[in-house]
Specification:
Elements (H helix, E strand, L loop, with lengths): L15 E2 L2 E2 L36 H40 L31 H26 L10 H12 L1 H14 L5 H10 L2 H18 L7 H29 L25 H28 L7 H28 L5 H10 L1 H15 L5 H40 L5
Antiparallel strand pairs: 1-2
Helix pairs in contact: 1-8, 1-9, 2-3, 2-4, 2-5, 2-9, 2-12, 3-7, 4-5, 4-7, 5-7, 6-12, 8-9, 8-10, 8-11, 9-10, 9-12, 10-12, 11-12
Family: Belongs to the nonaspanin (TM9SF) (TC 9.A.2) family.
GO biological process, one term: protein localization to membrane
Membrane topology: Multi-pass membrane protein
Length: 431
């Protein structure tokens, strides 16, 4: 249809619409259209392959691959920094420290400085043990869940025409992987001499489920109040609560009991003194906020492009089927987080600050803050959402998404730092 000019349908008595007199009465307009149907040779099960075809979305795939290449360059640079720079510095440190072979481990404190001097404090257990172990346990659970979801997607178990399939799988996997969080949390809690293992299990089981239930309650109440069809019925709510009470929480308890009974001793190359060493004043660039800014921005920059398409899929009308690229981005994210954690932990120890336990979690775990800030940017500049209902749902679930990323990357960051610290202190000659 060409050259159509708009005109008002509601006119005064006797007005003419398109040359037809209305005369104050009603007007019936017949609207017709024609459709040409072309049969597709692809069966229904393979219909989603068109969304992964380069000829179907050439520009989109090009942007995806450019993002992957950009992120890989970042990973190579970070790995080169960790392997070349840090190992070169550590080699010089080892050569300097191992010259002193006279006396015991305690005698090496005289006239020494750097990360070696805090060898009797670096394995001093932190405050808030139960909360730390709960973060590590739930982070390990979400790492398992995310890996399983991506593998299932690669195997073609999700159809883009079945809305909510990934959400349903995530709910089931969250309940089934609760044993992972209980095992990791209670096992490490026992290793670091935690005494209140029952409270540790309760904290682990509620660390994410409590914010999830609170956020969902507020969002669902707003939906009910506005009469939206997005509000879940009472039967679905009871079914989800039953899945957590009958499956999720019991598996957390079982995993915690198994982890407690199978936990060994904490492996520390050096013994810990009873009296903690005084920590010297640190320069501004070694403060927690600076490390959080560095450790959060770099992993976020590696996934920022792909994050846009995920947001457009979840909150828009796009389809995301490039699960192979998603797997690459997922691996890059974890690699960048681990490398950044090792580098920041070394710089922290070199300043004779042994409070690395929580610092390693917060440094890379702050990626969740950057993701939430990006969600605010997406809401204001990339989406057409507005109103109380859409705003509450978007920001509520964006907060939960940021929490999930913080828990996952915080767990990866901690285990990478712990392995690095054990390696460098085990490599020293301490008689």
């Amino acid at each position: 249809v060409k050259d159509v000019k708009p005109f008002p349908l509601e006119e005064g008595a006797g007005a003419a619409v398109g040359g037809v007199g209305v005369g104050g009465g009603s007007l019936t307009v017949t609207h017709t259209y024609s459709v040409h149907w072309y049969a597709s040779s692809l069966p229904y099960a393979r219909r989603a392959e068109r969304l992964r075809d380069y000829s179907f979305f050439p520009k989109t795939l090009e942007i995806h691959w450019l993002s992957i290449i950009n992120s890989l360059v970042l990973v190579v640079l970070l790995l080169g920094f960790v392997i070349i720079i840090l190992m070169r510095v550590l080699k010089n440190d080892f050569a300097r420290y191992n010259v002193e072979e006279e006396g015991g481990c305690d005698d090496l404190d005289q006239g020494d400085n750097g990360w070696k001097i805090i060898h009797t404090d670096v394995f001093r257990f932190p405050h808030f043990k139960s909360l730390l172990c709960a973060v590590l346990g739930v982070g390990a659970q979400f790492l398992t869940l995310a890996t399983a979801i991506i593998i299932m997607a690669l195997l073609g178990m999700f159809n883009v025409h079945r809305h909510g399939a990934i959400n349903s799988a995530a709910i089931v996997l969250y309940a089934l992987t609760s044993c992972v969080s209980g095992y990791v949390s209670c096992s490490f809690y026992t290793q670091i001499n935690g005494q209140h293992w029952v409270w540790n299990i309760i904290l682990t089981s509620s660390l994410f489920s409590a914010p999830l239930f609170l956020t969902w309650s507020v969002v669902n109440s707003v939906h009910w109040w506005s009469g939206s069809t997005q509000a879940l019925p009472a039967t679905t709510v009871l079914l989800l609560l039953g899945a957590w009470v009958l499956v999720g929480f019991p598996l957390t308890v079982i995993g915690g009991i198994v982890g407690k009974n199978r936990a060994g001793n904490f492996q520390a190359p050096c013994r810990t003194r009873n009296i903690p060493r005084q920590i010297p004043k640190q320069p501004w660039y070694k403060h927690t906020v600076v490390h959080m800014a560095i450790g959060g921005f770099l992993p976020f920059s590696a996934i920022s492009v792909e994050l846009y398409y995920i947001f457009a899929t979840v909150w828009g009308r796009e389809h995301y089927t490039l699960y192979g690229i998603l797997l690459c981005v997922y691996a890059i994210l974890l690699s960048v987080g681990a490398c950044i954690s090792v580098a920041l932990t070394y710089f922290l120890l070199s300043g004779e600050d042994y409070r690395w336990w929580w610092r390693s979690v917060l440094s890379t775990g702050s990626t969740g803050l950057f993701i939430f800030v990006y969600s605010v940017f997406y809401y204001r500049n990339r989406s057409s959402m507005s109103g109380l209902v859409q705003s509450m749902e978007f920001f509520g679930y964006s907060l939960l998404t940021a929490l999930v990323f913080s828990l996952m990357l915080g767990s990866v960051s901690f285990w990478a730092s712990l392995a690095f610290i054990r390696y460098i202190y085990r490599s020293l000659k301490m008689d």
